[in-house]
Amino acid sequence: MGNWLLTLILFMSEISSRSEVESGHQIDPGLRELFVCMMQVAFSAFGGGMSLWSHRIIVERRHWMTSEAFVTGLTVARLFPGPNQINMSVYIGSIFKGVPGSLAATAGIILLPFTLLMLLGLIYFQVSAISEVNRLLAGLAAAAAGMALSMGFKILDVYKKDHLALAIAVIVFVCLQGFKFPLIPVVLVAGAISMSLYWPRGQQR
Amino acid sequence: MTAIQTWWQVVITFLKLSLFSIGGGNTLLQAYHREAVETFGWLTNRQFSDLYGLAEAAPGPSSMFVGLLGLGAGWKHGPVWALITGYSAEIAILLPSTVVMLIASVYWNHWRDSPWRMAFERGLGPVTLGILFSVSVTILKTANHSLIAYGLSFMVCFFVLKTKISPLVFIGICGLAGVLGFVR
Q1: CA torsion angle A107 B66 A88 B12 (round to 10)
Q2: What are the pLDDT digits (tens) for B96-151?
Q3: What's the predicted TM-score (pTM) here?
Q4: What is the pLDDT of residue A46?
Q5: What is the structure's pLDDT at B70?
Q6: For a 10 Å CB count at each end of chain A, is N or C smaller?
């Protein structure tokens, strides 16, 4: 039964990515477009690959924002509490349409996927776990991990000529993975140092 | 315990945790486990990890896992209460952090010309880059328990970067490899 539902989900996301190709390039989306686009992001993404998908759909296909503006949004979304992709939709929505835009984008990314997940959850509690479903989940998780990793490389591309940025990224990585420092102090300290290094000296009086 | 009491327990638990979910959903995973399995006994250990796999594989933000925890907590009072508690859990974990993010996003546009914002934008990108790779390593370790699984992850990463093939193709291949028993 789980297999059947996942096939349905794959099919739905395939349909959504087709209708989006037909609609072509759009600038300055309205509330309905924000809702639909974020729903599309949600249905295209499995597991950790969501920021990759939102980049692909919002920057590469729809050209709503530049890659740099997207990375900025991602940074703000990561810095403030809350799930990254929910925060990212709040940010994207607010850029174009303020508070209503945020609500439309957030509803888009979560409403339908969440309802589907709730139904899957009910099925899970109704029928006890099937080993084939578990093995399927293991395979999907491996794919999701690979997609999460590719997002790192994609952003690495933006900074590949900036040696200072690369050095900061390496130090942050070592602090988190090597020394296992907690995220919050690492962000506060490394963020403050990095901000002072990137302070806009030229444009100031 | 009545259905309302369970509901209240769930809502309060996730409202409290909301503002501590910094850096994405995974940072709170241990706290979820402590509350749902150890403190309140909403779920067994096995159910917890099964539902996490389900939330990771389903389309949509992986933070929707919280809704499944609520669903599990409410299940003993029947499917209707399970759904009510599930939706409430998700709203509870999202509401405080979304309000903060909304305020931040609105003010972000007001601070367009401030040197603080310029420094913030340029300076925090590299920090995010480091965090992204760190989170990726953690996700790789959590998701993969065999060399073949790691191989699949790196293959997906390579092809997503180097080709225009839809990632859904790789998801399908990895899912099939999983069903055939190669991954676990």
Answers
A1: 90
A2: 999 999 988 888 767 778 888 788 778 878 888 888 888 788 778 777 778 898 99
A3: 0.67
A4: 57
A5: 96
A6: C
Ranges of each domain in chain B: 1-110
Between chains, do B135 and A17 touch, taking CB under 8 Å as contact? no
- Residue A123 burial (10 A CB sphere; 0-12, 13-18, 19+): middle
* Per-residue pLDDT, A128: 59
A16 by DSSP, 3-state: which? helix
Chain A closest CA to B12's CA: distance in Å?
16
CA gap B64, A119 in Å, rounded: 13
Q: Count CA atoms closer than 13 A to B157's CA, side-chain side.
A: 22
**In B, which residues are within 8 Å of A134 by CB distance?**
50, 53, 184
CA–CA gap between residue B15 and residue B96 (Å, rounded): 7
ipTM above 0.85 for this complex: no
The runs of H, that is alpha helices, within A24-66 are: 31-44, 50-54
Neighbours of A126 (CB within 10 A): 10
Residue B155 reports pLDDT greater than 60: yes
- B106 by DSSP, 3-state: which? helix
A-proximal residues of B, 76-115, CB under 8 Å: 79, 82-83, 86-87, 90, 94, 96-98, 100-102, 104-106, 108-109, 115
User: How much is the mean pLDDT over chain A?
Assistant: 79
What are the extents of the domains in chain A?
2-151, 159-205
